[in-house]
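Bench notes, afternoon.
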Amino acid sequence: MKIIEYFEQTNELQKYLREQIVQGDWRAAKFLYEVLEQGKLSERYGESTRLLLLVEDGNLLAFCTLAERDEIVEEETEPDMKPWIGFVYTYPTHRGNRYSEKLIRYACCLAKQDGYGKVYLSSNEVGLYEKYGFIYLKRLHTLWGEETQVFEKEADCSKYDE
């Protein structure tokens, strides 16, 4: 099992990974697939956006992004509210193995290496991200006009084990 970065892969492997992403049973997985198909991930979420994928034996187990922006109305965020962890997803057959936690820790370590002190995440899940060390910050609005919770966490590498 290893974490790979989407944009570091060959075009052929990227296509294969997109085909696995769209198989997710979550509407955001389908949305991510469309954004990737259109080649607009960096345009939408920032030039330094990374798509992190947890794979084993050619199978995609889980994924998330580490990006400059999220689906939050930009006017509601503070200028230093970045980077954002988003699109956190583990396929149903692989849940219960803490794969999301592994990806989140990796993303936090990358953020720290990039010079950030904190990472942010938006979600309406209750109790999920708190167990990964996130602290509720406030409620903001998404680009679709919905309210969402915003969480923050220190960016560090102390709990990441490769």
